[in-house]
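Hi W., the pyridoxal-5'-phosphate complex you wanted:
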Amino acid sequence: MKNIYNILSMKETPINHEVVSRKIKESKLHKIGRASIRELLKVVSQIEEETGHKFIRMEMGVPGLDAVKIGVDAEIKALKNGVASKYVNIEGIPEFKNEGQRFVKSFLNIDVHKDGCIPTVGSTSGSFATFMTMGNMTERPFKHLFIDPGFPLHKQQLRALNLNFEGFDIYDYRGDKLKDKLESYLKNGDITSILYSNPNNPSWICFTDKELKIIGELANKYNVIVMEDLAYFGMDFRKDYSIPGEPPYQPTVAQYTDNYILLISSSKAFSYAGQRLGMLLVSDKIFNSKHPKLKQSYNSDIFGQALIYGSLYAINAGTSHSPQYAIAAIYKAVNDKKINYREAVLEYAERAKIMKKLFTDNGFKIVYDKDEDNPIADGFYFTFSYPGFTGEELLEELLYYGISGISLAITGSKRLEGLRACVSLVHKSQFPDLEHRLKKFNKHHPVN
Ligand SMILES: Cc1ncc(COP(=O)(O)O)c(C=O)c1O
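Structure:
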């Protein structure tokens, strides 16, 4: 047991030892270190309430900034104009499709037909509909591959649809090594699709152009669909991808293959999580591809038709008007260079830089620390460990020091010593507290 120090000298931890132990016990969770994000949130909130001490809360991956105002204004206007009483067109309103098409040309430098620019209820609804459609598409049993670590909800979506998946942790397979590893799965011929997020939740690694090329070329060779999750669009702050129509562009596998479906969230780059509006971007090739098996479940054997009029219709019957107007207005403003989305979210990089230093100055290590030879970017998340602790033990022990994160074990990572920290809810005014708590932790758990 790693919390011997606490047992011997209960009074010394920043958060009252007795309260933390009792709340953990009362939660009836078998192991607090394995708790889901929501379960942890509940326990931490209870401890905060009883002790009156605010935690350094790093467990939730939610925006910590205000929504882009142009979006809110456009949404209010649309509602005042009476959209609330009307059913939506499932394909999306023209304003959204037009500006969405311009957005991907401006910031990814790719050309996609408007038909393939589809609004969804958050990007997660887009991935769910895609999985559902692909599950009904293949003659052979469906199997999906995750390049992990990743967003746990995607795995839950496949479980809910009763679809098979496997995955591997990219940690040991960066750069050229990715080719053989990926091919070892694809050569069996039973993988339909691959998904990864870039920048990556939870590790904040960013795939290099070399790696994206490997993925794209193998997708061509084995006729596999690549689902690229761009939930943190443009947020690799080492480069500025935010000038429309000018390089550098947000790196994407779409430069190397036409077998792509991109998931473009509005939640983080535009701080628009609550209104649940993402864009599912389906390449022309995939949109128009024909699959006879689709006819068993849908009215059409064309992928794009089945996706929109079969899956998305069945799930949501369309995406609310007003958030579509909001994101269409934001897309238009960034396409026209009226606003720069990056400037608002750059704040996360500043927080991460300082927080990572506070951790490493006090004996912690960054787990996913490199993109090939380069140090990873400072951004929305980082991962950390402490010598001698498993991730589960560390998560529990840090609660006594008023710090919360999530275990990498729930993300498909093999780095079981690690935790994920999200910087978004940690305000700069809390940094002195964080430093004090980390120093205490380090003092109580000396590293040899
Ligand atoms: C990798 C990843 N994909 C998707 C999402 C969800 O995006 P949305 O809010 O657009 O559904 C998140 C949110 O945390 C994420 O981290």
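Residues 61, 122-124, 151, 197, 201, 229, 231, 265, 267, 273, 278 surround pyridoxal-5'-phosphate (CB under 6 Å).

W.
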